[in-house]
Specification:
two-stranded antiparallel ribbon, about 220 residues, about 15% strand, single chain, 6 helices, alpha+beta
């Protein structure tokens, strides 16, 4: 019995010495990164829900801030869409599930650009939509014009902006804003966009500075 106890003690001491000498490498191993859990649903079911959510999900908005772009096709032949941020979250979750399940997702369209916009009219609920390049330029024109100071000290501080791009028929504003609007007009013309409004012929604007404000002289 003494021999058995002695043998067991020696074996235990040898094991402890071995572990002590080799350090952490003997007692721990790197754990491989876990892969995303595969979906329990089939690809047909996931992709069908993806398309249904994209075409029938809530698209309501109150401002442009509520809208975003889902920049992946939700079915073959599509290039993404402008949609509410809530619905976009649902679409992203479905896309992740589809990838985990190994589904064959459509390939996104190269060069596609989305400009989300909340189309809202008085008395009706707004909905997210995608602005065309021309509509985006027109919107940017109106935004720049709405931020104009129109202030001046002399006539040279004023300038003329063109009609047809924004929702008015041209006019006079401060020179800095007029220059920015001229640049947008150039982009609008180069893109062969149709004029937003049709204006009647009139005499050319003559920019003048009157009482510190740019006006038509």
């Amino acid at each position: 019995m003494l021999r058995s106890i002695y043998t067991t003690t020696i074996a235990a001491a040898a094991l402890a010495a071995t572990i002590s000498s080799c350090g952490r490498s003997c007692s721990s191993k790197e754990v491989p990164a876990t892969e995303p859990a595969a979906s329990a649903r089939g690809c047909d079911e996931i992709l069908a829900e993806l398309e249904t959510t994209a075409t029938s999900g809530s698209n309501a908005c109150e401002s442009d801030h509520d809208c975003t772009c889902y920049n992946l096709p939700y079915k073959t032949g599509t290039c993404g869409l402008a949609i509410s941020k809530k619905t976009n979250g649902d679409l992203v979750a479905l896309t992740v599930e589809a990838k985990a399940a190994g589904c064959d997702l459509p390939v996104s369209c190269p060069g596609w650009k989305c400009t989300p916009h909340c189309n809202r009219r008085p008395g009706s609920e707004g909905f997210c939509t995608h602005l065309s390049p021309c509509a985006e330029l027109s919107k940017r024109f109106d935004e720049v014009l709405s931020g104009a100071t129109g202030k001046c000290e002399k006539d040279e501080d004023c300038g003329v902006y063109r009609a047809g791009v924004g929702r008015n028929c041209g006019g006079v504003t401060d020179a800095e804003t007029a220059g920015a609007l001229s640049g947008i007009f150039g982009e609008f013309f180069a893109a062969s966009c149709d004029y937003v409004v049709q204006c009647a012929p009139r005499a050319p604007f003559v920019p003048r500075c009157a009482n510190g404000v740019c006006t038509d002289g």
